Every structure is written in structure tokens, then in C-alpha cells.
Amino acid sequence: MFLIVFVLFSILIVRLGFLQIVYGENYSREIEQKIEVPIDSSVPRGKIYDSEGKLIVGNTPQKAITYTRKNNVTNEDILETAKQLAGYIQKDSEEDLESITKRDKQDYWILLNPDDAEKKITEKDKTKIAEKDLNKEQSDKKLYELLRERITEEELKSFSKDELEVLAIYREMTSGSMLSPQMIKNKDVTDREFAVVSENLNSLPGVDTSIDWNRYNAYKSKDASETLSSVLGKVTTSKEGLPSDMLEFFESRGYTRNDRVGKSYLELQYEDVLQGQKQIVKNFTDKAGNLIESKTVREGQSGKDLVLSIDIEFQQQVEKIIERNLASAKIGQPYMDRAMVSVMNPMNGEMLAMAGKQYVKDEETNKTRVADFALGNMTTSYSMGSVVKGATVLTGYQTGAISPGERLNDRPLKFKSTQVKKSWNTSGFGLINDLYALKRSSNVYMFLTAMRIGGQQRYVPNGPLSIDKVEGINKFRHNFAQFGLGIKTGIDLPGEQTGYGAGQVPPEAGKVLDFAIGQYDTYTPLQLVQYVSTIANGGYRIQPHLVKEIREPSNDGTLGPVFQEVKPKVYNKVDMKDAWIKQVQEGFRLVVNDSQGTAYGYIKNKQYKIAGKTGTAQALYDGPLPVNPMTWNVTFVGYAPYDNPEIAISVVVPWSTTDKTHVNLEIADEVFKAYFDLKEKHTEQL
Q1: Would you tell me which CATH number, out of the four given (3.40.630.30, 3.40.50.300, 3.40.710.10, 3.40.50.920), belongs to the domain 313-386+483-539+574-685?
Q2: What torsion, rounded to 10 degrees, do the Cα atoms 174, 178, 179, 184 define?
Q3: Residue 27: what pLDDT?
Q4: Mind telling me the catalytic residues?
Q5: Phi and psi at residue 348, in whole multiples of 5°?
Q6: I need a labelling partner for 672 at 20 to 30 A (CA). Which of 84, 154, 249, 440 fits?
Q7: Of 382, 381, 399, 314, nearest in space to 354 by CA
Q8: Closest CA relative to residue 286, chosen from 35, 30, 24
Q9: In whole angstroms, what separates CA 8 from the centre of its chain?
């Protein structure tokens, strides 16, 4: 036995000597080897300016306290640091305490009561888990889940307020990635808290003080509403980090989970521009996880700034015009709760204003308030009525159904087994041409045009309506789409709606006639302004856009150099003769400027050379109230000056109980005046 032991020890000594002499240096090098860990830190987000260089959205610097977790730190070490930090800062607000989950409390209880926690798992439990075909990691997880389930509600409620404050800090510390700064507190950090923590950093391993930023809208009114807020969008908070539904998308682009990002509309659409270039620091650690050295690989740079095509002063005026006129028109109108206005430069697609207002009921106070509804211009759609008759007439020209100047007989149309179809002048206008039909908004002229497009050339009183409804509706939709009706406009915002009806075959042929007067498919206010812009500029459908320029960041409060200018994007030239478009332009001019025009008495600022088209559509109410009466949508599209257009607008006010309201035209008239008054003001300031 002695000889065997002697031989074994001799072999072991020889082996250890071999390892020490032959591989010792390699193993020593491996132990001392640096491990490279890249860390990125956030930078201020790019600002948003209006077309005149006025700051709309900026960043307010704010004091912040962060924690960076090292590789070799245990949960017990973190808890000790959290207890120390709780003595220097306050983190016991209602928001802080409400963010603590049941799982957080369970983990915290186990950490504070290791002996009691151990008693909750019996040997029988361990044996039962061991009998399952699980590896050690899976077994430990199962036992831990069992332990958490056995913690009682009384035990979870046993925490004092001070202990919950420590937990609020602890959960923030453990929620971040290794060696990645995690925000502990960046809201309402007092000067005293910032100073005390800064003085005690040596006794608070991993804790640091820094400057964070908070996004703000410079145009915030007394009632806390923000101009253009719904279009500008929101940015996640430091607690939210990356949105869960876009986690993989952002992580694939190098973001970390606690990064703040744009989560809606402009902030989301231009995230890659606004986010900026994060500072990248490489931390080098040894095998034990001890930090050896830090090296800055790339300096951070603030996000690039956006310059919008919107003049914020004009935007505010349009919002006031909508709010004032809607409030007046709403009296005695139980369903009229919203109005939208889109304003666009028809020559280059720049959005000059995108405004909307909506009456909403506050669920907490049960009081009605006026909310921003600018997004309604692209996210809601309605039957728009006679404003589409310009597209109907042009479709008639293009298909050969009618020719410019052709006369048709406007009188009530009676088809077999259907209700009479007629114009608003119930006795009819008699023999009229296309210009008169546009000026007076004849329905029958459009019905007869639609019949010819569908293959029925003659109207026979009390005879059948024998058009090909599929061919008719397809021809209409094909041509309407050339103007942007029924398809996305392509605006630089996510979430645009196309409206309803596209692709559907009408249940009966009469619906094709309704389509011709804007009472079948639905469109968005934004589609309307693109449509009228296409007529105004001679037939070019242009992409609407809110961002005019992207600028390099600047530190002195002024706009930096231009990084990128957004050029006009023409989608298509309509497949129609220039002379045909000019004919419809003349019809639109007569609507406003001829004494018989449907807008003549309500568009008073004729000095601006306004052209346009009125619309009234009977539609089923489908708003927030639990009723479905028949209502009226009143609309308007127009542009000015008609001989050299620089502004095009659409106005949509749905769900009136009467077709006698003219709130759509009153809004339009004031918007044109506001635009040209502001233009004159800017000219005088030059």
C-alpha cells in the first residue's frame, strides 16, 4: 500500500512540474488576459425646428444618478450598495413604489431572509425535482419557482417603507446589462442629492453621477396641451427603454435595452437621424471581472436636427380657427365632435399645416375637453361627397364618356325598382355643361357620366340601370388613384390609413353612381389635399412630407449646416391631357368666384384668387357614441392663387345633423387669410 501511494504521489509531482514548466507561462498569460467589453452611452437627441427656425422640440438637461454593474458583483453586494444609496437619495415616490412588481418583492424577501427561505424547500421537494430529467440549471430554476410560490402575501406585505425604497433602487440596479450604465434616478434629483452622492462615490461601487436629458415641447399651452403633439410623437422614458414590440428591431441595430427611442410618429419615423452617435467606451477586465482599463473608441455626437416644412405660427393659427369654428358649429349638434385641416404646398409636397381638434370626454372627471387630433388627417377616413367631382369629370374625359364642354340633361333619374336619384336642386338644372356641373355641384351630371363609364350610354325613364358595375368601379378607382384617392399618400409618418372600399365590388350598380359623387369609398383628409394639389399643379401627384431638411447638430442654439435636403418626390403624372385638367381648374375657380358657385357666398377673401370644390355627403354616423343615425359630412378642397398655386387645403367636418351648416367653408376662408397674412408679415420682416 505504501509503495502504491508513493508511486501515485510521484506521478502527481511529475505532472504538476510538467504543467508548471511547459504550460505555466501560457496559463499565466491567460489569467492576466484582458477581456474587451464595449459599452455605449447615450447622447442628447436631435432637436425639431419649424420652417422659420423656431425650436419646437428640444432637450432639457437634468441631473442623473446611474449604476454600472461589474461582472464579479453579487446580488448581496448590490443590495448593500442600494442600502447605502438610499441614505443619500429619495426614491419613494408613488411612481417608484408602484413600479415594484410582485416578482421583485419575492426576490427581495428571499435575499433578506435566506434562512427562512431555505426552510420553505424540503428534502422531499428536492428529491421530487431530482427525479425529473433536468440539468442542474433547470432543477435550480424549478426549486426557485417553488420557493417564490410559497412566500405568503403577509410576508410580502411585511416590508417597511424604507425597505421598499431600497428595493426600488435595487431593482433598477439589477435590471441593466453588465458594465452598461443603468439609470437609478433622473427625475427631480435635487442639488443636495447630486452633491452628496458625488462626494461619496468611493464608498458606492458602481454608482456615478451624470447629466441626462428630458424631451420637451416648446409650445405648451396653459392647459398643458402641446401644439402638433400627436404628429411629433413620443420618446420612451429611461424606465421603458426599448418598446417590447420592437425589441428585436432595435437590438439588431445596436441598441441596448435601456436606450430611449422614438416610439411613435415623427420621433419614430426619424429615429435613426434623431438618435445620434453614441459614445463607445471599451472596458477591459481580467478573468475575475475586475475592471483594468477604459478606453474611448468613439466620441458621442448629438442627434441630427429636423427642420419641418410647417410654420409653427401658422399651425397655431389653423388650430385656433378649427377650435373656434367647431365650438360655434357644434351647438345643437350631438355628433359633431371633430374637424381636420390639411394644408400643403401643391408644387413641392411640403406640409404647411396639419391640424385637427376633437372633443373627448375625460374618464376621470367626466368633463369634455378639446384634444389635439392632427393625426386624424391620416388615420381616419370619411365619405367626402362632391369634392371628388373633379376626379369624376376627369375620369369621364379619360374614358371617353364625356368631352370638355359637353351638355347633359340634369333632371331627376328614375330607374326601375330604385329610388329617384337627383341633384340637390330637386327639380334639376336642365341642360348643363361640365363647368356648370362643377360650379353648381350637379349630382345628375356625375350620375350620367358614371352610367356611360359603366357601358350604359342612354338613360331611359323607369328603365333598368344596366351598367357593368365591376368595369365601372374599376375604371373609377384606377383614375381616382392617380390623384391619390384610395391609396396611401406616402407621407413621412407611420400608421397612415388608406380608407375603406378599395377592392370591394358594389352590391348593386347604383353604388357606382354614388361613388361618382363621393358617397361610397372613404378617403382621409390627407388624401384630399394630395388630390386637389394634383389638380392645382397641372396633374402631378406629389408625396406630402413634414420634414424639409436634416441639419447637423449645433451647440450654440442656432441651426447647423444642412446634412440633407428633402427633395420633392413626384409619384406620377396623371394620364390625362393638360387641357382637360385646365377645364376642371376653371370649374373649381367658378365654384368660389362665380355668383352661382356653391362656395361664392362663404369664401369671402376672393382677393387671394381661391379655387375649390365644396362637398356634402350623407353618411352613417360611426363615432364614439353608441348610436348610428344618418348624418352629413361637410368638406372642402381648394388652392390659391388659382393662376400660380402655392397653398392647397382640405377641410373635413364629419357628422353634422344638417346639410345646411357651412362650417367647412368658414374654416377654409379663415385658413387662406391666415396663410397670406402671415406670408405678408414674413415679407415685411425681411
Answers
A1: 3.40.710.10
A2: -20
A3: 55
A4: 386
A5: -135, 0
A6: 440
A7: 314
A8: 35
A9: 75
